[in-house]
Amino acid sequence: MSGKQVCQRKPINKTKLSSALGAAWGRVSHEIGKGTFADKADFDEVTISRAMRGPSLPSAEHLLNSLCADQSALDEVLALYGLAIKPRVSQAANDMELAAGLGHGLSELIDRLRDGRRCHLDTLALAELFRRVIPQLQAIVDEADSIRGAA
Predict the structure, then answer these.
(1) What is the end-to-end Cα distance of the chain in Å, rounded?
(2) C-alpha distances in Å from residue 125, one per residue of 120, 121, 128
(3) 59-99, pLDDT tens digit by residue?
(4) Long-range contacts of range 80-87, CB-CB < 8 Å, 24 or more positions apart?
(5) Would you say residue 1 has pLDDT above 50?
(6) What whole-number percentage of the chain has pLDDT above 70?
(7) Please, what's the largest Cα pairwise distance for the chain?
C-alpha cells in the first residue's frame, strides 16, 4: 500500500504549516497587492493578514480559493509535502512573454553567479523570476504531449 502514497514525507505541524502559508500569501500579496488578492480569492484582507501573522490557519475553502488569485499561492505549503500544483488544463504559453522571462532570468542568474557561488539571497531572487516562467514552460510541454497523444 505504501507505493500508492502521494506524500512520502512526515506530517507537518501547524506552526511550520502556518509559517509556509504566511510566506506564500505574503509573496502573492506583495506581487499583486493584498486587496487584489482578497478580491480574486473572494475573502477579506483580514484573512490574509491573520494567515501572514500566524499561527492561525484559514479555512479549507480560503486556502483553496487563494489559488483563484494566483496558482502559486500555496507553493511554499505544498513544497513541505514535496508537491506542486499543476493545472489540469494548460493554456498555450505567450511565447514572447516566455522568451522575455527566460532571457531576464538567465541574465540575472549569470549576474548572480559572477562571484562563483549562489547564496540564499540569490536563490530567493532567482526563484521569484523562475516561478512565473515554469507554468509557461509546462504549458509548452503539455501542448507537445497533447500533439503526441500522450496527454
Answers:
(1) 26
(2) 9, 6, 5
(3) 999 999 999 999 889 999 999 988 888 776 666 667 888 89
(4) 80/9, 80/12, 80/16, 80/17, 80/20, 81/7, 81/9, 81/12, 82/7, 82/8, 82/9, 83/6, 83/7, 86/138, 87/135
(5) no
(6) 89
(7) 48
Cβ-Cβ contacts under 8 Å for 135 (sequence gap 6 or more): 71, 72, 87
Helix (H, G, I), strand (E, B) or coil at 7: coil
Cα separation, 94 vs 107, in Å, equals 20
Contact 73, 26 (CB under 8 A): no
Q: Give the model's confidence band at 6: pLDDT under 50 very low, under 70 low, under 90 confident, else very high.
A: low
Give the integer Cα–Cα distance in Å for 68 and 2. 32
Instruction: Report the C-alpha gap between 15 and 51 in whole angstroms.
Output: 11
Q: Provide the grid cell at 67.
A: 489559488
Distance, CA of 18 to CA of 118 (rounded, Å): 28
Q: How far apart are CA 35 and CA 38, in angstroms?
A: 5
Residue type, 116: G
Task: Give the separation between CA 27 and CA 71, rounded to whole angstroms.
Answer: 12
DSSP letters for 66-91: HHHH-TTTTHHHHHTTT-----SSPP
